[in-house]
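Methods — Computational structure assignment.
A single polypeptide chain was analysed. Its primary sequence is given first, followed by the predicted tertiary structure written as structure tokens.
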Amino acid sequence: MKNCDFIIRIHDSEKKFATRSGTSVLSALMPTHGDDITAGCYSGGCGVCKIQVLSGRYATGVMSKVHVTDAEKKDGYCLACKTMPESDLIIRPLRKVPPKIGHRFGYLAR
């Protein structure tokens, strides 16, 4: 994959995608693999894009403990919109939408 800094692979899948340094996992994933992750607000407020990083180095921006607890952070959980790869990654999208958020963003019928 040309013109990329890192490759991100989706766990239990053949799918992989290229990204540049400084680009969030969510921003890199959405153009070609948007079906593999759920996205809501794109800024960390909803927690819908929660993933687990299984392998690789990454940095995260500020995330609410409502969405990612300290214990979860230690296990590699983070929000894709706030996660910047620092190496190749293997991720596992959780695809869980809390009911309150699901209704607000139209993922769940009222």
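Note: The CA atoms of residues 9 and 16 lie 4 Å apart.
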